Amino acid sequence: MGSLGFWRLAQADPEWVAAVDPDGTEHTAGDLLARANRLVHGLRGLGLTKGDGICGLVPNGSEGLVLYLAALQAGWYYTPINWHLTGPEIGYIVADSEARAFFVHERHGAEGARAARESGIERHRCFAFGEVEGFRPYGELVDDQPATLPDDRSNGATMHYTSGTTGRPKGVRRRLAGIDPDDSAELMTFLLAMFGIPPGRPAGNEPQAHLVTSPNYHTAVTQFGGTALQMGHTLVYVDRWDAEECLRLIQDYRITNTHMVPTHFKRLLSLPDEVRKRYDVSSMRWAIHAAAPCPVPIKQRMLDWWGDCVWEYYAATEGGGTIASPQDWRAHPGTVGKAWPISELLIVDDEGDEVPAGSPGTIYMKMAGTEFEYKGDREKTEKNRLKDHFTVGDIGYLTEDGFLFLSDRKADMIISGGANIYPAEIENEIVLHPKVADVAVFGIPDDEWGEQIKAVVEPAAGVDPGPELAAEILASLEGRLAKMKWPKTIDFIATMPREPNGKLLKRKLRDPYWKDRDSAI
To answer: Where is the segment annotated Disordered (predicted)?
Structure first.
């Protein structure tokens, strides 16, 4: 194999600035390499062997990056945990993943300490960045360890927990190949190579910088940022995403690639013109987005502003997906693209039979050369499969020439008067209203129709919620959306419950309306 992979690159060029923390602190590749090596030696001293797992409850930045790099070169599974969860929810993941070490940043110390008690993990395996009740200082594990490259290195992996629409989250676990970590990293680079993104090292390549816009506990954020690092790009972390700050970072660090979600686009486009014109974003070559359907006019405005650098893909933690170049999207507005070269798509009806082009059905995918299971849940793994394809429950259709269009999640579909109604289609129209910052559409009980359509709107800054705004929003749908798809009622909310990766926590909004019913459709 060639010369890619963080460990090779760090040894060849230890002074390369590999990561920038949210507070602006720069970390060289040599520094990160030494820290990751010390951690491997320290955890081996605790008895960790290949195939074991570690968990991290840490904010974006170099601490989590070191946990990731250590696991990836020692043959371990690293599970970054969502810091919005409560202690018992975190404790469940620590226990379920069979973590043999648990790392917590003091910012999340209260819930981290609860999680440790809940999970039953031995206290000498709990380490804190800063001070966390009952945890050992991180320095105790690493300070006396050598910075030398450990021997007997082999590739590890992340094991992310999917939030899932029902029940407890499940860890998506892949079999480890037992190969050299740098060779494994080089194989990972196919992800960015599909978008045409080049290495940022060794010498002779133009420097590349990747902006990490969302929390690292999300699969895509880890994959894109991790792969960029393995290609020699500088990672620039944000702590909390802010539209103007995003533009400043792109300008100051000459960011060339990033991973975003449509909510980011909406917030960027909502900035006043004079603010947008203040920043030079011409360095951006690949603004890659996913996680939620992007309304066609919003994407069009981003392309008009940033030029042909806005790429889209559709994928799942479990593997496989599609990709849409700016040119593909201009030719097929609204598409999420065609299958990756190593992936296949299958659209089927409720009986599992393939449907013709243009007909919506459940989307199944597969990716060559990768197998996964939901850890400890063979039944769920098998239930979501069709032969060697799997589904996450999304609905969509394929065109004759293989372009995929998403309709919605099966779980979010509204059945009203026997008709299937896709909330995403309604949301995409309402969000275009200038007085709307965010919107969620879902079904609520209706004795006559089964379900009626409810919209919950977060008004734009300075806009008063109320019946007048509701009437104005509904009037804007005239001629754009069939009346049967109009929300029956609109409620208002100060802040929409979204995860920082843009994923809408629709269940939080929907559940109160269904609490007195025997079943939620």
So the answer is: 144-174
* Rounded alpha-carbon distances, angstroms, from residue 218 to 40, 213, 324, 460: 24, 11, 21, 27
- The domain boundary, picked from 269, 292, 315, lies at 292
- This prediction has a pTM of 0.80
> Each residue of 445-478: pLDDT tens digit?
876 677 889 999 999 999 999 999 999 999 999 8
β-partners of residue 57 are 104
Question: What size, in residues, is the chain?
Answer: 521
Alpha carbons 216 and 197: distance in angstroms, whole number: 21
Structural domain for 197, as ranges: 189-292
Kindly provide the residue ranges of all beta strands, DSSP E only, lying in 144-290, ordered along the sequence. Answer: 157-158, 161-162, 170-174, 209-212, 234-237, 257-260, 286-289
Q: Are residues 124 and 46 in the same domain?
A: yes
SS3 of residue 305 by DSSP: helix
Where on the phi/psi map is residue 167: left (φ > 0), alpha (ψ -120 to 50), or beta? left
Q: What is the CATH number of the domain that holds 94?
A: 3.40.50.980
Instruction: Take residue 157 and report the two structure tokens written for it.
Output: 């992996």
The confidence score (pLDDT) of residue 15 equals 96
* SS3 assignment, position 132: coil
- The answer on 202 and 179 residing in a single domain is no
41-98 confidence digits (pLDDT tens): 999 999 999 999 999 999 999 999 999 999 999 999 999 998 988 888 899 999 999 9
